[in-house]
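[job 0417] fold request received: Dynamin family protein
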Amino acid sequence: MSFPLPQDQSANIGKNTKLVEQAIQLFNDKMAEKIVDEMAVVHIIGAFSAGKSRLIRELLRCHHAAHDLLPISSQERQSALPLEITYGEVSRLLRVGEKHDAVMLSAFPERGEQRRFDASQYRLRLELPEPALLLGDMVLCSAEEGIKRLVVKDMPGWNSGDSFVAENALANGLVGADNISLVYVVRANGVDSQDDLSRLRAIFTAVETGDAFFYNGFHLVVVVTRCDDVSEHAAITSRITERLLQLAEEVGIEDDFKLTVLCVDFGKEQDALNHKLFIEKFWKAIFLPIAKEKSLISPLGLAGRLQHWKKDWLIQAKLMGSLALMSAARHWVEGFKKEGQFVAYMNSTRLLGLSKEERCSKVHSTWRKQVGFWQQSEEVISKLTLGDDHPLAHFWNNYWLKRLSDITKKVDELALKMELTIKILPLSTTDLQDYFHDQVEGSYCQAMRALNSSFYCVADSLEAIKNDQDQAKVVATLLSVSHLDAKYSDYYNFFKKSQGI
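[job 0417] inference complete; emitting structure tokens
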């Protein structure tokens, strides 16, 4: 997720718009999460035609735009290469070689195409924007910083007769791997298969010897497919549980063994509610060994990350400071002319008999009482800058504060102009108001124009949210109104230039 750039790129006619759009892009880049694979994985194993490909399609079928990338589901043997499934911001399917070189695929390859590549050296990798595959910033086996994503590995079905990887349930990373859970897919009419049982025994033995490592104990999730008779679910579950618990006891891992059995039928008669319940049960089951850690996952997405910015990154204080400076500037300039006079109620008669220094001092004192004190804005603005590491630094320092400075420097110039005008007040001056009008009116008008600029208007609109604790809302509004201001100011400058103004 990121803040979108405008679609109509033809509107980018000026430097302000380009600067803001560049700043938004830099912000998006800085806020982009580094997403990395967690070393702990979930393998899916089973005989060919057990329903592994169908299971994957059902788990991910909500991603309609990626249907061509999902494994083909039929009674044909489809997966000749190991398939990794993980999170990606964009749906894509890759064929990855032993040197991690990757080729983008437009559709899931047919089995014949897959068989051209050695299954021990090549694999398919499917990345989808599926939130269930994200593990947040938890640390299981990988110490690499970033948002972790689970890797689900769909192994080629055994008894396919054409792949060592397919025939060896312990091949391709299961031995020595850091597993969260193991998923065993079997058809309802094959739950008593002795061949399957012997392959599971090899895995159980690898767990007992420490050759296959599982996080927080060995958790096996059995998915029984083609269970179209709901009345048989309990009996099938009981039979599988009895056999596998007995196997665990025989191998000597009964104390560390956990089992979940899910029965399902992916036929047309399955209603949407049952499908949703199965999907929820499946994800809950495979994450059972890390349920406590997963419940502590920090919020993902741009909005969540903004809400959990470190304290010195919060933008509200800087925003309030800039709005307070603009408000002070307007208040000061609005008091600059009182009843049309730059120094109200002051005339030459009241200065009779005074020296030049005394005249200047009296005029200055009267003026100060009228307008109050104005601090030159440069020092104030310097305290509002953001550090270079802040994601909004480029936007804030180069656009927002620059536009703010364009306003306040006109007020600075007006203050300095008035100070100088008073300081050089000639003794021969007979009409003070005419004198100040001639000397200061131009600077005063420039300051007023600055305070009526598009930037002041959009900035003033932020008063309503300056204290809002929703950081995402504040940042989004800040960037949005700034883009509007940038486009307006660029169009206005273009118009003035075209009209020779």
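[job 0417] notes: DSSP finds 16 helices and eleven strands in the chain. The longest strand covers residues 35-45.
[job 0417] exit 0
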